[in-house]
Design goal:
mainly beta
Length: 67
């Protein structure tokens, strides 16, 4: 992950939640696949994190207990 971009993954019963915070003021593209929960938009490939922005992506969990 790019330096200055905080990335935290939390695992739920049926999905992972990827929390992204840009501390650089430049923005970034972070690989993800799911739904960006703040906008409701689907994400396939990188999620574009705006300068100083925040994103939360729900990603399906593959395998037992997931989709």
């Amino acid at each position: 992950m790019p330096a200055g971009v905080e990335v935290v993954r939390r695992r739920g019963a049926g999905a992972d939640y990827l929390f992204l915070i840009d501390h650089t003021g430049r923005g970034a593209e972070i690989p993800a696949d799911g739904v960006e929960l703040l906008t409701g938009r689907p994400v396939v490939g990188p999620v574009t994190l705006p300068a100083g922005g925040v994103a939360v992506v729900r990603e399906p969990v593959a395998g037992p207990g997931g989709e």
